[in-house]
Amino acid sequence: ERARKRRLRLQRRKQEAKEAKEQEAARAAEREAKIDQWRAKCIQEVEEKNRERELKAAADSVLSEVRKKQADTKRMVDILRALEKLRKLRKEAAARKGVCPPPSADEAFENQVESLQTLLKKRTELYEAEERALRVMLEGEQEEERKREMEKKQKKEREKLLQQKLEIDSKLFGNPDEFPLAHLLQPFREYYLQAEHSVAALIQIRHEWDQYLVPADHPEGSCIPPGWVLPSLPTNDTWATAVR
């Protein structure tokens, strides 16, 4: 009998050691999975930022090139106007000396100037269209960046609120890791959270609360608190022992 009990005890210890090892392996795998997920998320964020930076740099480079072309076109327009003014002055000076160019020369000059003006106008319109398209693209990228920042901020706020809720629930109902569903406190937890799962229970609880609704300045009562009323911290060791 002693040998049989010893074998059972050894088998039980062996089984417990095996289960502990499996649990540790499972926890290690879970930790590794979380680390891999976090690493992949970080890599993805870095790649997205690099792509955005490269796209913005490319767009800025193209926009700078377009502005340079616009400046060159404007300079050409100014040169053309200066040539027209210079020819007019020289023509007036020659007329005072009694020298007049033939009409065909004036017509050829005007045709050439009109052709250049048409070409420069088309280039100006083309460069303006390119600039507008690039500005729209840059504004779209900036809007997407603002939207992503807003989503990140909202996600952090949600995580913060969730963490606060978990802390409050832990103070009110205990740590869920220490108190599983089959624990003695579970019926109380279900009772206090029944309104989240039953409309009838929500109506009944609200009806009971509404019977005690009073203004904030009422001398014989106070208004319903907006959230959970958290318990005070223990004031002595005996109370702290009972709470634990």
TrEMBL record:
<protein>
    <submittedName>
        <fullName>PDCD7 protein</fullName>
    </submittedName>
</protein>
<dbReference type="GO" id="GO:0005689">
    <property type="term" value="C:U12-type spliceosomal complex"/>
</dbReference>
<feature type="coiled-coil region">
    <location>
        <begin position="139"/>
        <end position="167"/>
    </location>
</feature>
<feature type="region of interest" description="Disordered">
    <location>
        <begin position="1"/>
        <end position="31"/>
    </location>
</feature>
<feature type="compositionally biased region" description="Basic residues">
    <location>
        <begin position="1"/>
        <end position="12"/>
    </location>
</feature>
<dbReference type="InterPro" id="IPR031974">
    <property type="entry name" value="PDCD7"/>
</dbReference>
<dbReference type="InterPro" id="IPR052831">
    <property type="entry name" value="Apoptosis_promoter"/>
</dbReference>
<keyword id="KW-0175">Coiled coil</keyword>
<feature type="compositionally biased region" description="Basic and acidic residues">
    <location>
        <begin position="13"/>
        <end position="31"/>
    </location>
</feature>
<dbReference type="Pfam" id="PF16021">
    <property type="entry name" value="PDCD7"/>
</dbReference>
